[in-house]
Write a structure and sequence with these properties.
single chain, about 300 residues, alpha/beta, Metallo-beta-lactamase, Chain A, about 20% helix, binds zinc ion
């Protein structure tokens, strides 16, 4: 089952060195989730051959422009294309007023089936809870209210063994129940225990998206078992003072968080325009947490 993230924007504050403002697209079993929507996101989607029409949920971390200025454009495009599928938007409460004002001023009657869900910015909250995933928001520490997001997969179905099923004469219509843990009863009443027909499922996977924050100390419980942590690493440690002043994290600090929580892998991004070459950021993080990668626009990273 696919669980991966494609990075669309890696720049903090302003576009620089051909890097774009924050956005990333998560694909969980062909359900598409967009995290942040910086300016140019719809162009980046197009550039990397990703279909904007497939997006079902959009999550906005905070209202600094580099995290959502692409949203009015994306929504207007979907509206022009007569997009019909429901679209769920999660973000700071003021986002709804901002969008309404913008669309009213241009006399745009949105025909989209758009559902706005205000995110509580001061406490952890469950935003999505369905059969496949639970998605949480967690308050971060930034200059304005800002949240991070965790996508936690639900326990997956047991792995059905078709060869064993064939041997025991399992009909197709019984397979779904078996994947959920049921035994199979043959027509003569013989019960075939589930363990003969299935294997344990792979463990559920977890993705965390933490951007625009001071180094965090209080969400460790939520980071337990995270397979891939995307964390901002706006500055190098030599600019730690600047990072603290602007409420950002250094590459070293992001790596310390990853190490402390033993996440599977760390993906750093949200680079300051100060840095043309990102290698020093990578090296700094890897000195603490070797399993670190630089988020690169257009690249897709497996989760788990
Ligand atoms: Zn910000």
């Amino acid at each position: 089952m696919t669980f991966e993230v494609t990075v669309l924007g890696t720049s903090s504050a302003l576009p620089a060195h051909f890097r774009h403002p924050s956005a990333q697209l998560v694909n969980h079993n062909h359900t598409y989730l967009l995290f942040d929507c910086g300016e140019g996101t719809q162009m980046q989607l197009q550039r990397f051959g990703l279909k904007r029409s497939k997006i079902e949920h959009i999550f906005i971390s905070h209202l600094h422009g580099d995290h959502y200025f692409g949203l009015p454009g994306l929504l207007t495009t979907l509206n022009l294309l007569r997009h019909e599928k429901p679209l769920h938007l999660y973000g700071p409460p003021a986002l709804e007023t901002i969008l309404k004002t913008q669309f009213q001023a241009s006399s745009l009657q949105l025909q989209l089936d758009l559902h706005f869900h205000p995110v509580p910015m001061e406490s952890p909250s469950i935003l999505v809870d369905n059969e496949a995933v639970t998605i949480y928001s967690l308050p971060l520490q930034h200059r304005i209210a800002c949240v991070g997001f965790v996508v936690a997969e639900k326990e997956r179905e047991r792995k059905y063994n078709p060869k064993a099923g064939h041997e025991y004469g399992v009909p197709v219509e019984a397979i779904n129940a078996i994947k959920k843990g049921a035994d199979y009863t043959q027509p003569d009443g013989t019960v075939i225990p589930n363990r003969l027909l299935t294997q344990d499922p792979l463990p559920p996977r977890k993705y965390a998206y933490f951007t625009d924050t001071l180094p965090l100390t209080h969400w460790d419980a939520y980071l337990q078992g995270v397979d891939l942590l995307y964390h901002e690493a706006t500055f190098l440690q030599e600019h730690a003072e600047r990072a603290a002043h602007t409420h950002h994290t250094t590459a070293l600090q992001a790596a310390q968080l990853a190490k402390r929580n033993q996440v599977g892998a760390l993906l750093i991004g949200h680079y300051s325009a100060k840095y043309t070459d990102l290698t020093p950021l990578l090296e700094e993080a890897q000195s603490i947490f070797p399993h670190t990668q630089l988020a690169t626009e257009g690249e897709t990273y497996a989760i788990g």
